[in-house]
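Justification of resources, computational component.

The compute hours requested in this renewal are based largely on the per-chain cost of generating structure records like the one below. Each record pairs the submitted sequence with a full structure-token output. That output is archived, and it is also reused by downstream analysis tasks.
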Amino acid sequence: MKRKRLRQGYTTGTCAQAAVKAAVQMLLSGKTISEIQAELPGGRHLTLPVFDACIQFSESIPSGYPVSASCAVKKDSGDDPDITNGILVYGKVRWKDTPGIVIDGGEGVGRVTKPGLEQPVGAAAINRVPRQMIEREVKTALEESGCFRGICVEVSVPGGEKLALKTFNPRLGIEGGLSILGTSGIVEPMSEQALVDTIRAEMRVKLAEGQRCLIVTPGNYGLEFLKKAFKIEETDVVKCSNYIGQAVDMAIEEGCEKLVLAGHIGKLIKVSGGIMNTHSKWADCRMELFAAAALRAGVKGERAAEFLECVTTDEALEKCSGKERERIMEQVMKSIEKYLTYRSGEEMDIGAVVYSNLYGILGRTENVERLMGI
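The structure output for this chain reads:
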């Protein structure tokens, strides 16, 4: 049976580029348009419908051109589950007194408040590639019309401030709205790259703020544990989802010297087997790894085999006596440390903390206290 091919979409950056291109054409022609063709960074062309086209004239300015023009392009995320699907991204253009092109964000577009991101502090969260594409569209339109006046561009997303609260933007230090993103201009369905890029961005922000040791956890449960056990706030933690190996690699690439991975045993026991993407579609082996650690800890074979019948690591822990748990977790932590150290090499000092909801901290590598400064 063939799997259905997932439909691609296009990014907020593509929407902004197309909306601005359409708005510039309306500013130069004085006529509204219903669709626009945009050339994406990779050379692909899209023809997109234009919404809410508006041209403003002024009798006091007899230049022959309108004063401003604006319109919107609707975001289509394809089959990617993106909360921005269906939003309208507006491009508004107006003349300015001096030559050149100024690009800024309006309603619903976030502002950068922390260093380490692609744009400087204070700038609108319109990333480099969308800015380049917008500028190219404006320059081309002006050159083709023989008009060389300066233009101000404003990109806005009505409702973007509220939507942004459901994204990583507040954690990254982008406040007040969404980011205008995109490198290829296309949204790949179920794209893992977007999440990985967000993890890297979080790391850059923490390191730019002077954080000496990155604290990394797979998800929200880890955030709660770190706050309760170490009084570490959510804003000081990078969430890596299942991408543990890639998180380690990116931390090294960004110049990080110290990292502590903290997580529930149900996730991190996989790392004790060298599994660096902990999503169940790639590997599970939780109970096999737990049973193997039990054997290394001196638990008899028949007893260790009982763990293989457990559904969760929490269930396996409940079957252990206190001393068995300690011995098993000692083996688990040795293996986790081995594989994390193998992944990081000599380029970064790395440690780990493993916990369960029932028993709290189950184990930590010997260097954790030194790395975390506790």
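Residues 322-344 form the longest helix (23 residues). The first strand starts at residue 9 and ends at 10.
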